[in-house]
From TrEMBL:
Localization: Membrane
Native organism: Aromatoleum tolulyticum
Name of this protein: PAS domain S-box-containing protein/diguanylate cyclase (GGDEF) domain-containing protein
Residue ranges of every copy of the EAL domain listed in the record: 31-285
Length: 288
């Protein structure tokens, strides 16, 4: 849909910025109204997190949770991130929203650990705004500390466009984050402009293959070949590879054959609220 297209345009960087800006100007009144609503939403505690399981392909055990924000609007219902994250980024409200996401995800991870559930990583999406802002590593360090969470359980998801804008300062920020002890992953890999060659310069732990490659992996030889190449290169750099958007058994089988480490997608589970996610973890633990 149009919102997704806008979001992608923005996410894909400067080349598309004009298109994005023109579209947004066409709805200036709506934008101002929405900005106010987002501010109130934060104050009124209207945001919630859902968690999508990340599964080890070898053992089929849940090894991670990706925190995904939703806006529980009193009238509009559950609003997906594509409808408000782009504007939140543009207006900078994403910064306090992002801090809320980080804190809430860390508290949740700690709560699951305390209940004796099998330990899983918690992945949090960072926005470009947050990543560029001075003091990110300090914020992350203080947050995990305040939540009583071992930073090794926290993974921050970055995107290629965040790294390619100014690779040197991005690398400096990533090194600071690594010094805090968190994991870093590269989200939506393959949709941006970074070359495979650039990857070796980034201190990342994992690479997430974008779902646009996974979608036709069983029928499109090019997508299958790209996936195979990405997996083997990533492994040679010591990175974990996770496939996004796995929707059926055929895709999973194909990824397994290509040596992909982990998967995430509707085939295993849609994003879940905290309690169903905990139940899933508990059920998994019983099986072993
Ligand atoms: P993402 O980080 O790439 O997250 C994966 C998206 O794919 C999620 O959409 C998820 O629900 C969806 N998905 C997972 N499995 C499947 C599948 O099998 N098929 C299909 N078609 N979709 C699948 P969601 O939750 O709507 O989030 C969209 C994007 O919004 C995220 O993409 C991320 O870029 C952004 N986002 C979500 N939460 C946050 C947040 O807390 N902070 C920031 N900055 N961005 C966020
Ligand atoms: Mg993500
Ligand atoms: Mg992604
Ligand atoms: Mg994506």
């Amino acid at each position: 849909n149009a919102d997704t297209a806008l979001y992608r345009a923005k996410a894909q960087g400067r080349n598309n910025f004009q298109f994005y800006a023109v579209e947004m100007n066409a709805h200036a009144g709506e934008r101002i109204a929405l900005t106010g609503k987002l501010r109130r939403a934060l104050k009124n505690d209207e945001f919630v997190l859902q968690f999508q399981p990340q599964v080890d392909i070898g053992s089929m055990q849940v090894v991670g949770a990706e925190a995904l924000i939703r806006w529980h609007h009193p009238q509009m219902g559950l609003v997906p991130p594509a409808k408000f994250i782009p504007l939140a980024e543009e207006t900078g409200i994403i910064v306090p929203i992002g801090e809320w996401v980080l804190r809430t995800a860390c508290l949740q991870a700690r709560a699951w650990l305390e209940r004796g559930l099998p330990p899983v990583r918690m992945s949090v999406n960072l926005s470009a705004c947050q990543f560029r802002k001075e003091g990110l590593a300090g914020l992350v360090a203080r947050t995990v500390e305040a939540c009583g969470l071992d930073p090794a359980f926290l993974e921050l998801e970055l995107t290629e466009s965040m790294l390619m804008d100014d690779p040197n300062s991005a690398i400096a920020t990533m090194r600071e984050l690594k010094a805090v002890g968190v994991r870093l992953s590269l989200d939506d890999f393959g949709t941006g402009y970074s070359s495979l060659n650039r990857l070796k310069g980034f201190p990342i732990d994992a690479l997430k293959i974008d779902r646009s490659f996974v979608r036709d992996i069983t029928t499109d030889r090019t997508d299958a070949a790209i996936t195979a190449a990405v997996v083997s290169l990533a492994h040679s750099l010591g990175l974990t590879v996770i496939a996004e958007g796995v929707e059926d058994a055929g895709q999973l089988e194909c990824l397994r054959q290509h040596g992909c480490d982990e998967m995430q997608g509707y085939f295993f589970s849609r994003p879940l609220s905290a309690e169903p996610f905990a139940a899933l973890l508990r059920a998994g633990a019983v099986c072993t």
